[in-house]
Amino acid sequence: MTGVAGRDKIAPASRPENGMTQRNQSSGLASSIPGVKLLGGLLPEKAASTFLNRWLRRGLLASFGVGFTVPYLAILNDVHVEGDEVLKDLPRRNVVFLANHQTYFLEALAFFDLVYVRYQFPLENPVLRFSAAEETMKKNLLTKLMTLAGGVTFRRSFREGGVDIRRPVDMEGVSRVEEAIRDGWLLHFPAGTTKKGAPLRPGVSRLLHNVKPVAIPVRVDGFRELLLHKQVPGKLFKRCSLKLHPPLDLGEFYAQPYHKEDGARLVRHLEDLLGDGDEG
């Protein structure tokens, strides 16, 4: 993993004594409550929420897998995967997969199938999630369930409801995306739209520089061919593909202060790998 040297460096703490004292006090309080140690040392309300979300996610992933992903993507259609041998050597946290975007959910479901069904990784090691526009994930019950299963939402600054707009960057959404990367694996779509030929958003280079993850480009093809109408799947006996490229060599990019020119160069390189063709 030559591209991420230096990501494990830890800056010295500015207030070690106070911070350590507070953490020790919190840990001691949690440990003194019966049963809390079994739930990861969390206080009861936090532990209950984490426990519920974990099992809800497990149930949804199992339901999607058994009820849709395996029969539709593995039996009635064919998803060819290339370069997936890289998965077994990746750390279980601070990894981002950068993919072109063709459908709302199909390539994400195929990627979940690859990680949890084909490779049989534990559901919480890594915690795989995917990024999505907030407006998309509020459309109906299915999209809300997809959010619970692993969606990380943000408000796009350039597009909403199929219309081009301009508004400030959603910093809370950016924080959620960064946290999802630090806590596990994130499937991220730098174009931010399923529109064919859309350019990658320049903010992806800033995101990488801020979090310094292992970054894996993923080229997806053929998933649009599964759609019957708009974003509704249903076509059968089609061939799709996921191609995982080797991790990007970003050691030098991470080591230097961020410069727009370097960021633009990185985005152009990603477009060469992920370019989705011109709209026809």
Output the keywords:
globular, disordered N terminus, 8 helices, single chain, 11 strands, alpha/beta, 280 residues, seven-stranded mixed sheet
Give a quick summary of the entry:
The protein is built from 8 helices and 11 strands. With 280 residues, it is α/β, with parallel strands linked by helices.
SSE blueprint and pairings:
Elements: H1 16-32, H2 44-75, E1 78-82, E2 95-99, H3 106-118, E3 128-133, H4 141-150, E4 151-154, E5 159-160, E6 163-164, H5 171-183, E7 185-188, H6 203-211, E8 214-221, E9 227-229, E10 232-233, E11 239-244, H7 251-255, H8 260-274
Parallel strand pairs: 1-11, 2-7, 2-8, 3-4, 3-7
Antiparallel strand pairs: 5-6, 8-11, 9-10
Helix pairs in contact: 2-3, 2-4
What does it look like?
- With 280 residues, the chain is α/β, with parallel strands linked by helices.
- Helices cover 41% and strands 17% of the residues.
- Strands 1-11-8-2-7-3-4 form a 7-stranded mixed beta sheet, sandwiched between helices. Strands 5-6 form a two-stranded antiparallel ribbon. Strands 9-10 form a two-stranded antiparallel ribbon.
- Helix 2 crosses helix 3 (106-118) and helix 2 (44-75) crosses helix 4.
- The longest helix has 32 residues, at 44-75.
- The chain is globular, with a radius of gyration of 20 Å.
Query: Which regions are unreliable across 5 or more consecutive residues at pLDDT < 50?
Result: 1-43
Mind summarizing the main beta sheet?
7 strands, mixed
Q: What does the overall shape look like?
A: globular
Q: Mean pLDDT across all residues, rounded?
A: 82
Number of strands: 11
**H/E element order:** HHEEHEHEEEHEHEEEEHH
Main sheet strand line-up: 1-11-8-2-7-3-4
- Structural class of the secondary elements? alpha/beta
How many helical elements? 8
Strand content: 15-25%
